[in-house]
Specification:
This is VOC family protein. 24% of the residues lie in helices and 29% in strands. With 142 residues, the chain is α/β, with parallel strands linked by helices.
Length: 142
């Protein structure tokens, strides 16, 4: 059955090296790569990583900026990172990712409590940057 509720489908993150970005998101953040082999073989223009069954992060190479012609002026905003993306995780996944970030010397913010999001107030959240400087927030709700 098709679910016709509005949902976030994907977010485009501009990256210098999509393979390195995919490695970070797979091995540090824990997101599964999508179309990575096809991208590496030159068969797809960019790879993605899967957030959940219906949401991807597209790892768009900065070399694609010139091809952003879907709307007049679209290329003017291409290549600029969003302020941040936020991934809501179960408590155990939050703790495990926090540990992996620390083990891989990825700088993280202080842990905050009670920040508002899509599901109300989060129990804990923190921020870090991916290798391209995109800011990622992780949080969990209890």
């Amino acid at each position: 059955m098709t679910d016709n509720l509005p949902r976030l489908d994907h977010v485009v993150l501009w990256v210098r090296d999509p393979l390195a970005a995919a490695d970070f998101y797979e091995n540090i953040v824990g997101l599964a790569p999508v179309r990575l082999d096809a991208f590496a073989a030159g068969e797809e223009p960019f790879p993605s990583v899967r957030v959940d069954d219906g949401t991807l992060l597209d790892l768009m190479p900065l070399t694609m900026v010139k091809r952003m012609t879907m709307l007049p002026g679209a290329a003017d905003s291409a290549g600029h990172p969003v302020n941040h993306i936020c991934l809501a995780l179960p408590r155990t996944a939050f703790d495990a990712l926090h540990t992996r970030l620390t083990e891989h010397a990825v700088p993280v913010s202080d842990v905050s409590h009670g920040s508002f999001g899509a599901r109300g107030e989060a129990t804990r959240s923190l921020y870090f940057r991916d290798p391209d400087g995109n800011v990622v927030e992780i949080r969990h709700y209890d």
